[in-house]
Write a structure and sequence with these properties.
The protein is an all-alpha fold and 542 residues long. The protein has 28 helices and no strands. It is globular, with a radius of gyration of 29 Å. It starts with a helix and ends with a helix. 34% of the residues are buried.
């Protein structure tokens, strides 16, 4: 190790990447040497890079991987090296996206985008916009995704001929836009752009993506034999180990298998179709990566086994579909209604109960299997019921907020006339403090950041002890909840009437309301209204 530390950072960097795929043990030695050299030279940037290299050693252990990535972020966050911070957030988002955890992926992409803009890191602004567009497309927001992809292409096209890497980025974005056109049922636009992509990528490995698109588009034109041929050719290239890291996205593989299966289905070759639909399930089981389109595969498999009276396999794939549905609900609240409309969950559960009854009557399954299956039903039903109940409760709170007028902090000024000496303040002083509080609330003084009982008391010429006693007695709250409720009431009314701030991020809304922490804002909003600000905004825009 000591001899390795004597190498310069560039040499250690090169050695690490040369061995990461071929010799992980040696790569670990180089990563540790890089980190130690960074510590020896007290270089914040190189220490952070060292932690990042350590994270790369834990490909299949997300907890360990993110431990090192978060260490890299923590080290560099307060330094001047914001560009590397952009890279780390982008990397973290990409890992989550690969695993199909889109809600967390987009959080990190947005964090990376914020730093990319601050540092004028244009390449990363474009990269992150492209990644966010892909996520928007996965959530069915095709028009928004198209707009972002087109902006990316407008930037990438003038520089695409300067380097091989830039040209690759341009072609990748083009391929993503083709897919977006297709999903938005703009088949003619998809075919036209994909034909250009095939020409532009001639002689390059990335042409496999355009061949994949071509095959899928041929399915839409009822050219099923050609669709199968081209998709298989594309997958042969994509699945080569040397190409997977560069080109393969989970949705490319899933779509490839899905459309081969659908093509065989259209040709009435049911067994072949089912074999490819099962490949879709195999990819999902290995990666836990789920997209809405794959429901078709499960629907076809379930129907097939139902038609041949194979109850065991029918039950198995209903379980698989219900599990994926629960994954959808936990990751994509916005897609819940659509998923339910495409394959109604209560009907599935009913089918499962009927099948289990048949199995009991015919004694085809042991008591143990039936018991385990029942437990699965109860668990899945409980999950879905809790999600339904939570959404219903959120909807109720939203409706109440929309019909109510400004839900101001309750005032009990009438208590001033009561004979109450428990707070130990004279009636005259109480009147002065209450008058000042009324002005404070009327003039939105609570929007000031970092306001404390001490600073407010000083402004209204009293002491914090008297102030907090008056607030507790006449507003029925401690100081912090009193301020936070005023802020939440203010931002709720703004959101109901001002479409401009409906487009703000949660962080921007927190700042607008006087909170210096997004987490405190969200918790205060939920405590006051019964829903989170993200849900409130989503419903306002729906």
């Amino acid at each position: 190790m000591d001899s390795l530390v004597k190498l310069d950072f560039e040499e250690l960097h090169d050695q690490f990447y040369d061995t990461i795929e071929t010799n992980p043990i040696l790569a670990k030695i180089y990563a540790k040497a890089y980190l130690q050299k960074g510590k020896n030279t007290d270089s914040v940037l190189n220490i952070s890079k060292g932690f990042y290299y350590m994270s790369r050693l834990h490909k299949d252990d997300l907890e360990r991987r993110f431990f090192y990535v978060d260490s890299a972020i923590g080290i560099i966050k307060k330094s001047r090296h914001k560009k590397f911070l952009t890279f780390l957030y982008t990397h973290k988002g990409a890992v989550y996206e690969k695993k199909g955890v889109f809600n967390k992926a987009i959080d990190h992409y947005l964090e990376g985008l914020e730093f990319a803009k601050k540092t004028n890191h244009t390449n990363y602004v474009i990269l992150l916009n492209r990644n966010i567009a892909i996520l928007k497309r996965q959530l069915g927001k095709y028009e928004e995704a198209k707009l972002i992809f087109r902006k990316c292409l407008a930037y990438e096209e003038p520089i695409s001929d300067k380097t091989k890497n830039n040209y690759l980025k341009y072609l990748l974005t083009t391929s993503e836009l083709v897919t977006t056109y297709r999903k938005n049922k703009e088949i003619d636009s998809a075919i036209s752009l994909n034909n250009k992509g095939i020409i532009m990528s001639k002689g390059k490995t990335i042409q496999c993506l355009f061949k994949l698109n071509q095959g899928i588009l041929q399915y839409y034109s009822n050219e099923y034999e050609n669709a199968i041929k081209n998709i298989n050719l594309a997958l042969d290239t994509i699945l080569k180990p040397e190409n997977q890291a560069a080109y393969l996205e989970r949705y490319d593989l899933l779509n490839g298998y899905l459309f081969i299966g659908s093509s065989y289905n259209a040709l009435s070759k049911k067994e072949l179709a089912i074999s490819y639909y099962k490949k879709v399930d195999s990819v999902i089981q290995k990666s836990n990566y789920v997209i809405p389109e794959t429901r078709l595969a499960y629907s076809e498999i379930i129907s097939y086994y139902k038609s041949i009276n194979d109850r065991d396999n029918q039950l198995y794939y209903i379980n698989r579909l219900l599990y994926n549905d629960s994954l959808f609900h936990s990751r994509y609240i916005t897609t819940t209604d659509k998923l339910n409309s495409e394959f109604d969950t209560p009907i599935l559960i009913s089918q499962k109960e009927n099948i289990i009854h048949e199995l009991k009557v015919k004694n085809n399954q042991s008591y143990y299997v039936i018991f385990i299956t029942s437990i699965v039903i109860i668990i899945i039903t409980s999950i879905l019921f809790n999600i339904y109940r939570k959404n219903k409760r959120y909807k109720k709170h939203f409706d109440e907020l929309m019909v109510s007028t400004n839900n101001e902090v309750k005032r009990n000024n009438t208590k001033i006339n009561e004979e109450n000496t428990s707070i130990g303040i004279s009636k005259e002083v109480v009147k002065i403090i209450l008058k000042a509080l009324n002005e404070f609330e009327k003039n939105n003084g609570f929007l000031e950041l970092n306001i404390t009982s001490g600073t407010l008391a000083k402004k209204i010429n009293t002491n914090s002890k008297y102030l907090t006693k008056v607030i507790k007695f006449y507003r029925d709250k401690s100081f912090s909840p009193y301020i936070n409720d005023l802020r939440v009431d203010y931002i709720v009314e703004r959101l109901k009437t001002d479409k401009k701030i409906q487009k703000y991020t949660i962080k921007a809304l927190a700042n607008e309301a006087g909170f210096n922490s997004t987490e405190v804002f969200s918790k205060s909003f939920f405590k006051r209204t019964g829903i989170y600000p993200s849900y409130f905004i989503k419903k306002l825009n729906s």
